């Protein structure tokens, strides 16, 4: 890994690079999804039954090459935005950094345990918000004592109780925005080595977004690295100092937020 630590892909000189601690290194990373049973026109139940009866293998494996040779080095204290058109590979890259998707080739190195905070982060719908706060805290490695100490802070931050005592109701009674806010609040209660956020900010209302942006800035100060996937350029502008722009799985640009956003806005005509 040492050889990657001096690598300079962010326009920063080797001396400055050495002083900084790398937290995530992606080295020529390729991610390929395989979708089985996609033989054109052969997806019907009758066709499947015929194949089973004749003991023929299922037709067609379609490969989706979602991330193509991406390399970058992230450092402690950085907040990095991931931008790009729909389907450009942002969520896939985030999941690979979180260790949830295997690399087809290339490698991801991480310092510490990355935590993925996405709109799909698993909370239990049938349990109350209160129980989910406790379980979520324990699942992130907090002690019972720490969870107890931070419980009120998490609930206040989420704003779930602003419109009544929702925290004692099952999560299935929450709107999607409320659920996303609670997820963010649980995850943000802990100092993460590497915090990966997928569109979480887009789901809350404006005042919650402001609070989350402030919390992301704090997390950065507390020496973590934050990755944020968002289609909202203003959220990226407010929170990130560096941006990776993916297009069709390829890392098209990696640099300071304003430079990359300007090029991206040119590209999208925004
Ligand atoms: N589970 C999956 N199986 C097969 N293909 C997938 C799967 N998930 C994503 N893909 C494909 O991988 C590519 C990248 O998808 P990904 O979700 O990473 O893009 P994205 O940049 O996050 O998109 P968006 O901005 O729309 O959320 C797309 O072509 C998508 O169709």
TrEMBL record:
GO MF annotations, alphabetized: ATP binding
Stored InterPro entries: AAA+_ATPase (IPR003593), ABC_transporter-like_ATP-bd (IPR003439), ABC_transporter-like_CS (IPR017871), ABC_transpr_TagH-like (IPR015860), Bact_Polysacc_Export_ATP-bd (IPR050683), P-loop_NTPase (IPR027417)
Residue intervals of the ABC transporter domain: 47-270
UniProt keyword list: ATP-binding, Nucleotide-binding, Transport
Pfam family, one: ABC_tran
Family the entry assigns: Belongs to the ABC transporter superfamily.
Xref: PANTHER family: TEICHOIC ACIDS EXPORT ATP-BINDING PROTEIN TAGH
Name this protein carries in UniProt: ABC transporter ATP-binding protein
Organism: Streptomyces albospinus
């Amino acid at each position: 890994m040492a050889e990657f630590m001096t690598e300079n892909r962010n326009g920063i000189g080797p001396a400055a690079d050495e002083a900084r601690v790398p937290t995530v290194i992606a080295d020529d990373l390729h991610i390929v999804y395989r979708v089985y049973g996609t033989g054109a026109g052969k997806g019907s139940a009758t066709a499947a039954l015929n194949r089973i009866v004749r003991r023929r293998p299922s037709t067609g494996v379609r490969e989706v090459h979602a991330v193509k040779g991406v390399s970058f080095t992230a450092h402690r204290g950085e907040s990095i935005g991931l931008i790009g058109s729909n389907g450009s590979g942002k969520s896939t890259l985030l999941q690979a950094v979180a260790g949830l998707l295997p690399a087809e080739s290339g490698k991801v190195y991480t310092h510490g345990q990355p935590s993925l905070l996405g709109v799909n982060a698993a909370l239990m719908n049938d349990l109350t918000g209160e129980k989910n706060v406790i379980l979520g805290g324990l699942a992130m490695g907090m002690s019972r004592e720490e969870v107890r100490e931070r419980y009120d802070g998490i609930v206040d931050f989420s704003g779930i109780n602003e419109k009544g005592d929702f925290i004692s109701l099952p999560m299935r009674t929450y709107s999607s925005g409320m659920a996303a806010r609670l997820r963010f609040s649980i995850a943000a209660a802990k100092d993460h080595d590497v915090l990966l956020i997928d569109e979480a900010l887009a789901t809350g209302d404006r005042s919650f977004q402001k609070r989350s942006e402030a919390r992301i800035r704090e997390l950065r100060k507390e020496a973590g690295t934050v990755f944020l996937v968002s289609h909202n350029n203003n959220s990226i502008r407010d929170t990130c100092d560096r941006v990776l722009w993916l297009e069709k799985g390829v890392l098209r640009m990696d640099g300071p937020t304003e430079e990359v956003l300007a090029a991206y806005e040119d590209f999208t005509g925004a």
